[in-house]
Amino acid sequence: MMMFFYNSNSTKKNLKWLANYIAAMAICLGIMTSAQAKSPEGEVITDIAAWKHPVKEILINNKVKLTKILLLDNKKYPVFYVKLPYDPQSSETNSYFYQLYAEILEANAWWSYALHVEQDQIQIEINWDKAKKEMTVNIVPLQELNTNNK
Question: In the chain, what are the domain boundaries?
Fold first, then answer.
């Protein structure tokens, strides 16, 4: 049995190390899977087959392949890593995508979210303004995201 003592003088670095250590031990003991372990950015879900959520059905019905989910902001802001069947930047597919964005938004209980699209090197940010009851769509190049996060 291991014991840890909290020292109020501990630095954030030591606490982060301790959290990572505890997560690693939980994985080794089979208490949680690595997919459930917290990353520094948020919780990562890679076991899509076991993931149960209304958004999953919307994606399947629209031929969108989900590869990973990153949950940010206390699990309120999901980033869905997807492979899309069509080009989301084409004017010819606007009606398909706006319908898809709205369906996902509703299935996600009207919480804002993002679709991370490696194939097109973009992230599509869908935001819901509760007061105005208005959806906004912002397409951000991944290169811009990577630059802003450094």
Answer: 9-38, 39-148
The confidence score (pLDDT) of residue 12 equals 47
83-94 pLDDT, tens digit per residue, is 999 999 999 999
For residue 109, the Cα-to-chain-centroid distance in whole angstroms is 15
Long-range contacts of 106-113 (CB under 8 A, 24+ apart): 107/53, 107/54, 107/55, 107/57, 107/58, 108/54, 108/55, 108/78, 111/76, 111/77, 111/78, 112/77, 113/77, 113/78, 113/79, 113/80
Per DSSP, the three-state class of 44 is strand
Please give the Cα distance from 109 to 46 (Å, whole number). 22
Q: What is the pLDDT of residues 75-131, one digit of tens each?
A: 899 999 999 999 999 999 999 999 999 999 999 999 999 999 999 999 999 999 999
| 101, 106, 111, 112 alpha-carbon torsion, rounded to 10° | 10
